[in-house]
Amino acid sequence: MDTRAITDEAIILRGRDYREADRLLVVLTRKQGKISALAKGVRKTNSSLKAVTQLFSVSTLTFSHSKGLKLVTQGQSIESMRLLREDLDKIAYASYIAEIVDMVLEEGKANEQVYVLVFTVLTLLQAADDPYMIMRFFDLRMLAVLGYRPYLDSCVSCKRGLHNGKFALSAARGGIICESCLGLYNASPVSVGAVRTMAKILDSDLRRLFNLKITKSMREEIDTAIANYMDYYLEKAPKARAVLAQYTGLSTK
Amino acid sequence: MAFYYFPKSMEKLISYLMKLPGVGPKTAQRLAFHLLYAPEADALGLAEAIKEARAKVKRCQNCSNLTDEAYCPICIDATRDAKSICVVEQPGDVIVMEKTGEYKGLYHVLHGSLSPLEGRGPKELTVDLLMKRLAEGGVSEVIMATNTGVEGEATAMYLARLIKPLGIKTTRLAHGVPVGGDLEYTDELTLARAFVGRKDL
């Protein structure tokens, strides 16, 4: 058994209170993938690990093995992600990201692409006024990283081009499908504009995305389509999405 | 091969004790032996006390704090300032606030905090009751004394969004350096907030 300590960059995905003053964390690390670890005494006011075990914060953490469960022994903050915790909507958005990452990753399987994606998205979210693009960027790129990238070039069945006909996004078929091929598949209707926007989100440079103008109706179209598509592969709807709807339904500040 | 087990009734007791927080199989066994050997009055007294507490303790109809009566002693107390309500997560937090001796107003106990990650929304808390109290009028300040983690902050911000449109002053407990604490060992977040909230000497 390897008893040496591991030091790795880690993002705190979720934490729940454990025993008197401990917290059981789920963290996403750069090199070890998703791991669970126990942070002892972090709910006491004078714990030095308190800041580095806050939700969404990114730190260099040192883990040591105790019986089975890893313990967090040291930590140094890289990016506190403070702004994510000081705004109700951003808490909800970041929670959604954390929940999905926790759902799709297997414990202890390294996936640096996911780490970089989550770090990028959380960092951008901190400063964002309108998180819409960042969130859909996360959704689509996450699907792509996991190998569920939707096929958006033409109808998955008859290869009919995007320029004519009506299309829908089908999770079961893994991409867009035209009206005549749709049959009994469950799919969300998407306009050609929405398909093109999703394709851009998947392929363009991140900086260009923020200049894209999307109408409200197209946003809703893309939201529904991607949500249905993701839920098919996640096998259940993330809880945070419902909460997100509750929060953002309120007038802001 | 036959193993020897505890008597059935004792196994049952152990299995219930194991459901308590922080109690594993060994501790449960030890507690079970203790209860069997302890004076009858002590052991049965415990059983009675559990029964009584379960039957009697309910939520105060006004503030949702735990109480034996319809209303808790704080809500009934006429000397307390009914113009301010201090919102806390747990009944235990009321005790802590009371120990400071600083606060003379009323409380509201939420029985939890909002957590998008755990799917815990406002409906799981006593938010509706709080809003009903505020709608009745007469309250000029609501103090958010939820915990300072993400969930507590989210709860405070969510409530502030609901309450501020009513024109009621909504305040949050200050964040600062602990009394007797060394600056060197204070994390940068707390220190930053303590700096923003600094006071005239």
| Proportion of residues in extended strands of chain A | 15-25%
Task: Please identify the oligomeric state.
Answer: heterodimer
Spatial strand order of the main sheet of chain A: 1-2-3-5-4
Cα-atom Rg of chain A, whole angstroms? 20 Å
CATH topology-level fold name of the largest domain in chain B: Dna Topoisomerase Vi A Subunit, Chain: A, domain 2
Shape of chain B: extended
Order of helices and strands of chain A: EEEEEHHHHEEHEHHHH
Q: Counting H and I runs of at least 4 residues, what is the number of helices of chain B?
A: 8
**Category by helix and strand content of chain A:** alpha+beta
Alpha-carbon distance between the termini of chain B? Answer: 78 Å
The average pLDDT of chain A is 88
Identify the strand order in the major beta sheet of chain B.
Answer: 4-3-5-6
Low-confidence stretches of chain B are: none
Give structural notes.
The complex is a heterodimer of chains A (253) and B (201). Chain A is built from 9 helices and 8 strands. Chain A has helices at 82-85, 88-104, 112-127, 132-146, 179-182, 192-203, 206-209, 216-234, 239-248, and strands spanning 6-18, 22-29, 33-39, 58-65, 70-79, 167-170, 175-178, 188-190. Chain B folds into 2 domains: 8-56, Helicase, Ruva Protein, domain 3; 66-200, Dna Topoisomerase Vi A Subunit, Chain: A, domain 2 (3-Layer(aba) Sandwich), CATH 3.40.1360. Chain B is built from 8 helices and 6 strands, in the order αααββαβαβαβαβα. The longest helix of chain B is centred in the N-terminal third of the chain and has 17 residues, at 40-56. The model of chain B has no long low-confidence stretch (mean pLDDT 90). The chains are: A alpha+beta (253), B alpha/beta (201).
